[in-house]
Specification:
With 497 residues, the protein is an alpha/beta fold. 40% of the residues lie in helices and 13% in strands. The chain is built from 19 helices and 14 strands. Helix 12 links the parallel strand 10 and strand 11. The relative contact order is 0.12. Bound molecules: adenosine-5'-triphosphate and magnesium ion. It catalyses: ATP + H2O = ADP + phosphate + H(+).
Length: 497
């Protein structure tokens, strides 16, 4: 593995990379940065969470002149949250070279953006629709752009941005450099490449699978009616640090997040019909751990890099294999491990098989978890928390009361009562979700999702027939913070926490 100093980068950029805590390059960075620095067009494909942002961000920042006070680089991204995140990363890479990147996206006040543009950013990171607005108003001019990056280009096509992208690229001088990055490269991308790129070099990192191998991938076959109980039980058993639950429609996201809250989980939803300020605050709370379960449509499937996401749930199986790859890729980032669990109704098994054939990997079947397992999971959580408090916290002032109580009750009875109070018991608050139509696949012609080979190593881990210990919490994952058990207790929750 190469280090960044092998890549003939400038001193300020090396310094900022060190400051960001990057030591070695990832494979996509090692292979694309030199080509991109030469000014060539390129298409970069590599698994989710492997550092594609810096793979284009570093050459982008390097090739921009900090003295010239006009927009020289532009990154197009499919969602607002992704635009914000990419701009943040570019600002970090450019901090010592004094390169400024500005996110430009819908839902944010256009006047505010116009004022921010007057500060003359070197790079803008934009969603296509809002950029078009600024082009019409002539508040952004593209005639001095030297570099264009299309991040998640395939998703921008899915969202119907082809015409917008075409209009935008026509405004940009032809001598520009064009870079295109995604974890998935369906066939339409070749079309974009032919029309808008000059003899692009294709750099595809040949991994063993299209999805990251450190992400364990499971599925549970379950009827629509039982899905919510299964999700709750798995949450109780596994007690994820942070998890994302993907659902098919905005309405189901609303209903699910409400139902999860009713059952005592700290959950919020995010989707495209919410106001931008709501979207921002939900994401912020999820990042700082105030919310533990983020319920989302595919708006959160692409590119978002949130550390601490240990679990991804497909409450509804995605409509196509690309979406599966990206959703699951919200965990297991930058070499971390993760677990992805897909709930599949009997009618959707065909879609699951299609996904397996595209990702060239078996998704392991797990049985429906039982209530007993859910209870055991929560009891384990309580026990761990008690042992932690004994080891780490000052409990002297409780000892007097404890002794008084012990004078009249035996210790096992007392401790059992205390455990009951702080353990979140499986909850049967009635919930009702609007049914979603089962997933039907799009045509699969000509998919090229990376030159994956089957991962033989995963085949022996099949969960068929295993029972009680199948759903035990994974080893090695520890509980975030110290207050997990009491805060998640149902009584606290009912008091509005
Ligand atoms: N060389 C590196 N060393 C250590 N961490 C890195 C390195 N490069 C990137 N990272 C970190 O890895 C994480 C994932 O990076 P990034 O979001 O760029 O992935 P991606 O390939 O674009 O994924 P996706 O396909 O989901 O968009 C980020 O937290 C980033 O800071
Ligand atoms: Mg990315």
């Amino acid at each position: 593995m190469a280090t960044f100093t092998d890549l003939s980068l400038s001193e300020p950029v090396i310094r900022s990379i060190i400051n960001m805590g990057f030591e070695e390059t990832t494979p996509i960075q090692e292979q694309t940065i030199p080509t991109a620095m030469e000014g060539r067009d390129l298409i970069g494909q590599a698994q989710t969470g492997t550092g594609k942002t810096a793979a284009y961000g570093i050459p982008l920042v390097e090739r921009i002149m900090s003295q010239a006070e006009h927009i020289q680089g532009i990154v197009l991204a499919p969602t607002r949250e992704l635009a914000v995140q990419v701009a943040e990363e570019l600002n970090k890479i450019g901090q010592f070279k004094r390169i400024n990147a500005l996110p430009i996206y819908g839902g944010q006040g256009i006047d505010w953006q116009i004022r921010a543009l007057k500060k003359r950013p070197h790079i803008i990171v934009a969603t296509p629709g809002r950029l078009m607005d600024h082009m019409r108003r002539k508040t952004i001019r593209l005639h001095e752009i030297k570099i264009v990056v299309l991040d998640e280009a395939d998703e921008m096509l899915n969202m119907g941005f082809l015409d917008d992208i075409e209009t935008i690229l026509k405004e940009i001088p032809e001598e520009r450099q064009t870079l295109l990055f995604s974890a998935t490269m369906p066939r339409q991308i070749q079309n974009i490449a032919q029309r808008f790129m000059k003899n692009p070099e294709l750099i595809s990192i040949k991994a063993t699978g299209v999805t990251v191998s450190d992400i364990e991938q499971h599925y549970v076959e379950v009827t629509e009616r039982l899905k919510f109980d299964v999700l709750s039980r798995i949450l109780d058993i596994q007690s994820p640090d942070l998890s994302i639950v993907f659902a098919r429609t905005k309405r189901r996201v609303d209903e699910l997040s409400e139902a999860l809250s009713k059952r005592g989980y700290s959950a919020e939803g995010i989707h495209g019909d919410l106001t931008q300020s709501k979207r921002d605050s939900v994401l912020r709370q999820f990042k700082d751990g105030t919310i533990e379960v983020l319920v989302a449509t595919d708006v959160a499937a692409r590119g978002l890099d949130i550390s601490g996401v240990t679990h991804v749930f497909n409450f509804d199986i995605p409509q196509d294999p690309e979406s599966y790859v990206h959703r699951v890729g919200r965990t297991g980032r930058a070499g971390k491990s993760g677990l992805a669990i897909t709930l599949v109704t009997p009618r959707e098994i065909g879609m699951l098989r299609l996904i397996e054939s595209v990702i060239k990997r078996r998704i392991i079947r797990k049985p429906i978890p039982t209530i007993v397992e859910a209870v055991q999971g929560q009891q384990r959580l309580t026990m761990t928390e008690i042992l932690r408090v004994i080891a780490e916290e000052d409990i002297e002032k409780y000892k007097g009361v404890a002794e008084d109580l012990l004078a009249e009750n035996d210790s096992v009875t007392l401790l059992s009562a205390a455990l009951k109070i702080i353990t979140k018991e499986p909850d049967n608050v009635e919930v009702r979700l609007t049914e979603a139509a089962p997933a039907r696949g799009r045509s699969m012609g000509g998919r090229n999702m990376g030159n994956a080979r089957p991962q033989q190593g995963n085949f022996h881990r099949d969960g068929y027939g295993q029972k009680v210990d199948t759903w035990s919490r994974r080893k090695g994952a520890d509980f975030r913070g110290g207050t997990a058990a009491p805060q998640r207790g149902r009584d606290n929750k009912r008091n509005g926490q």
